[in-house]
Amino acid sequence: MNALDEVVGLLRGRPWVALTGAGLSTDSGIPDYRGPTSVRATPMQYGEFVGSVTSRQRYWARSYLGWRRIGQAYPNPGHHALVDLEQLGLEGVLTQNVDGLHAAAGSREVIDLHGRISDVVCLGCREVSPRLSLQRRLAVLNPGLTQAAPPEHALPSRGGRPPRTPPLHAEMRPDGDAVVEDWHDFVLADCGSCGGVLKPDVVFFGESVPRPRVAEAYALVDRSQVLVVLGSSLTVMSGLRFVRHQTKRGLPTVIVNRGPTRGDELAALKLEQGTSETLAALCGRLEKLEPDAS
Fold first, then answer.
1. Which of these, 155, 178, 181, lies nearest to 168 by C-alpha position?
2. Is residue 114 annotated as part of the catalytic site, yes or no?
C-alpha cells in the first residue's frame, strides 16, 4: 500500500478538515517563505509597522507594487480540488494564506486565520475598506512609481480566464510585497474617515490571530476526525496548535509538504509531495470509491 492509499483509507467515510499554507499557492505564482525554492526574506513586524512612519512607507511601497501581482493571481488545481472534495468528506478549510484564493475557487467554508490582503483596516476607527480603493488612491499620490505589468503565464484555470505567469520569487513575497529599493519618498494614504493609520487587514508577525477566529477554527477541527495539512511548514503557532490539538484528541493528522515541518513527529502520515498533484489524485481516488460507500 502506498502513502496515498493510506491517506484514502484515513479519509474515506470520515469528516475531515484542511489546514493550508503558502505551499498551496505556489502553483498560482505566489512564492512561499520557507519552501525549497523560496528566497530568504524578513517580513515586517507589527511593532515596526505601527512604530515608524518610515517603516510604513517601506511596507506600503512594496505592498502597492506587489498587489499588482498578487491581486491578479488565480486559484490553481489544488484550490479547485478542495472545492470538489467538499462532496467527499471535507468539512472546511483553515488557511494561513492571505490571498483569498480558496474563496475565489468556490470553497464554501473558509476560515482565513491571518485575514485577507484584499481588505484594509484603519487602526484608529477600525473601518474596513477594499484594497482596490486604496490602490487607486496610492496611484494618484505616487504617480512616478511604476512597474511593468505582469506577464502572461500558462497556469490553467476554470471559468475561461486567460492564463498568467507566476512572478519571480525575487520580485514578490507571500504577503504581497514586492522588492522596492527607492521607497523613501513614497506618499502614504490615511483613513478617509478619521485620518488614522491604514494597515492591510492581515495578521502581521508579532500580532495574534483574533480569539473569535481561533475559536471558530477549533470548532471546525472538533467536528472533523482527520486534519490534513497542505503546504505548511507549521513554523508559526497559528497552524501548529491545531496539529497539537488533534494529537490530544487522539485523532490522526496527515501532512503533505515538501520539506520538514514542526508537526512531522505528530503526524500519522507525511507525504513529501506537491499539494496540487496530491489533491487531484486524492480527489480521483475518493470519487471512484464513493459509489461503494453509498
1. 178
2. yes
CATH number at 3-293? 3.40.50.1220
> Looking at 79, 80, 102, 114, which residue is catalytic?
114
Delimit the domains of the chain by residue range.
Answer: 3-293
b/e sequence 147-157, b meaning 16+ C-beta within 10 Å: eeebeeeebeb
Per-residue pLDDT of the chain (294 residues; tens, 9 = 90+): 689 999 999 999 999 999 999 999 999 988 765 444 444 456 889 999 999 999 999 999 989 988 877 778 999 999 999 999 999 999 999 999 999 999 999 999 999 999 999 999 999 999 999 999 999 999 999 987 755 333 333 333 333 333 333 332 334 444 444 445 567 789 999 999 999 999 999 999 889 999 999 999 999 999 999 999 999 999 999 999 999 999 999 999 999 999 999 999 999 999 999 999 999 999 999 988 875 444
CA 195 centroid distance within chain? 30
